[in-house]
Amino acid sequence: MRVSKVFTTLADHNIDVDIIIQGITGLGHGNLSFTIKTKALLETLAVLEEHQEALQYAKLESEQNLAKVSIVGSGMVSNPGVAAHMFEALTDNDVAIKMISTSEIKVSTVVDEKKMIKAAQVLHDRFELED
Q1: Nearest-angstrom CA–CA distance, 59 and 56
Q2: What does the DSSP assignment read for the chain?
């Protein structure tokens, strides 16, 4: 799969991509996951299918009804374990994490849209943000 070509092709069609995750197996096979706005799904699928040969991918899957829940703070870089607390809080409360993206000041997770409010409340409680 030609990763740079995937995102160049989507950009050429004005499709905005948010979270991007790439994984490579020991056999050299790759998986590429990314998030887009729901309203762009049909166009994104059409563009990718139209360019399948050039993009060199074997299978295309999509999932809908997902939401992004993030924790943000400049103190995260100096407090080891913040992400672990986030993941533990979500999984302990039956909120499945589908994707994870991190930076120095933010951890974002993709969860089922139906669990978005619960996820936010769980994190609010875990990090004691009631004030």
Answers
A1: 10
A2: --HHHHHHHHHHTT--EEEEEEEE-TTS-EEEEEEE-GGGHHHHHHHHHHTHHHHT-S------SEEEEEEE-GGGGGSTTHHHHHHHHHHHTT----EEEE-SSEEEEEEEGGGHHHHHHHHHHHTT---
* C-beta separation of 50 from 100 below 8 A: no
Torsions phi, psi of 58, nearest 5? -95, -35
The structural domains of the chain, ordered by start, are: 3-55 (3.30.70.260), 66-126 (3.30.2130.10)
Residue closest to 90 by CA, chosen among 105, 64, 112, 57 = 112
pLDDT tens digits, one per residue of 92-129? 999 999 999 998 899 999 999 999 999 999 999 999 88
Question: Model-level pTM?
Answer: 0.86
pLDDT in tens, 8-64: 999 999 999 999 999 887 777 789 999 999 999 999 999 999 999 999 888 999 999
